[in-house]
Specification:
Shape: elongated
Strand content: under 5%
Number of strands: 0
Keywords: DNA-binding, Transcription, Transcription regulation
Helix content: 55-70%
Pfam families: TetR_C_11, TetR_N
GO molecular function, one term: DNA-binding transcription factor activity
Number of domains: 2
CATH class of the largest domain: Mainly Alpha
Order of helices and strands: HHHHHHHHHH
Organism: Nonomuraea longispora
CATH architecture of the largest domain: Orthogonal Bundle
Protein name: TetR/AcrR family transcriptional regulator
């Protein structure tokens, strides 16, 4: 028996192929689009990806985390605008996330959340993957608006975030109704009407920025 060499690191296993990981995630999205979350199986994902179940489980310990990782690639890192126009930015920013959630088949998020809800770690992963990123992005827009003096400094930021995001999250989670740009605009205008230091001035500024006097005419 050869003596063990001091300081020598143990041999690592075969390095993971990132291309296989990408292929598995793509296959997961394809199955989600066709069958939904409830009917998705690791066997079917493995078959489509040309992988094995053990290879998938080495990367993602269960179906929930596999699906969350796949959905994260679809949602991507959406960028929100910073034009200096609070009304314009919030409308456009929220619509960025509406468009992202539209890429998820109706009926996926509800069953997935129900599957994650009973386990604290899985629920935390669900929230940090799908809901906290857009919430943080909208929070940045609100902070910029407060710094400009457009919004009241004493506003309850968490409550405002919930009010602005509730339309998107509620309909994305349950998939019972579509979300239109007009509905987003109405929601933003309703909230800003209560937290803006001077809502008519914000409305006038947004019309000036867009160069279209018809913009937000329903709220003027």
């Amino acid at each position: 028996m050869q003596p063990r060499q001091e300081g020598r690191a143990p041999r690592a296993g075969r390095p993971r192929d990132p291309q296989i990981g990408r292929t598995v995630l793509d296959a997961t999205l394809a199955v989600l689009d066709e069958a939904g979350y409830a009917r998705l199986t690791i066997e079917e994902v493995a078959r489509r990806a040309g992988a094995t179940k053990p290879a998938i489980y080495r990367r993602w310990p269960d179906r929930r985390r596999l699906v969350l990782a796949a959905l994260a690639t679809r949602l991507g890192t959406a960028r929100t605008p910073d034009t200096g126009c609070t009304l314009c930015d919030l409308n456009e920013g929220i619509n960025v996330f509406v468009a992202a959630f539209r890429r998820i088949r109706p009926g996926v998020l509800g069953p997935l959340f129900a599957d994650c809800a009973a386990e604290p770690r899985a629920r935390e992963t669900f929230m940090t993957t799908l809901f906290e990123p857009p919430r943080a992005a909208v929070a940045e827009m609100i902070e910029r608006a407060v710094a400009r003096g457009d919004l009241r400094a004493d506003l309850d930021r968490d409550l405002v975030l919930d009010l602005l995001g509730s339309l998107v999250h509620y309909r994305a989670l349950f998939g019972h109704a579509p979300i239109t740009a007009e509905q987003v605009e109405n929601a933003v205008a309703t909230v800003l009407g209560g937290i803006a230091t001077d809502y008519p001035a914000l409305l006038a500024h947004s019309r000036q920025v867009t160069g279209d006097p018809r913009t937000h005419t329903a709220h003027g």
